[in-house]
Amino acid sequence: MKGTLVVLRGNSGSGKSTAARRIQEQHDRAQCLVVGQDQVRRTMLRERDVAGGANIDLLESIAEWGLDRGLLVVMDGIFNAGRYQRMLQRVAGRASLARFFAWDLSFDETVARHAHRADRVDFTTDEMADWYHGWQPLDFVDEERFDASVSIEDAVARVEAAIGTRARL
């Protein structure tokens, strides 16, 4: 039994982690695994985002574990296309269904959204500028793009519709 994969990509402050948590809340306990790039890279490994980083293999292993158990796996992160797209492609190949969504926001919009986050003191605007990469489409899949007009509620509803479940908002 293979699970369903949802990938939420976007620059820092775009809303992907909030959407991932909300999606998880819509599903029964132990049926939705959220695999956060920040959690794995920054918290578990204390690793910088570098090409070939250890977090890439660990993210893949965690996601595959969930998919192999038939779970809904929601991966959220910046997931710079140059560093992460091959891993994301491999993980998608293990899923019964894979859907990709990406926030396409200006740097000014990500900074404005970041100002309202609880972890806003964890990193600076200058650090965010280093991470910001603008729109970076993956070359193996069409992603549904979310612009600044898409609310978290709308994003969650669109994800749930794309995977065939109904969000309980």
From TrEMBL:
Matching InterPro entries: P-loop_NTPase
Signal peptide: none
Keywords: Kinase, Transferase
A Pfam family hit: AAA_33
Transport recorded as keyword: no
GO MF annotations in UniProt: kinase activity
Protein name: Kinase
Gene source species: Humibacter ginsenosidimutans
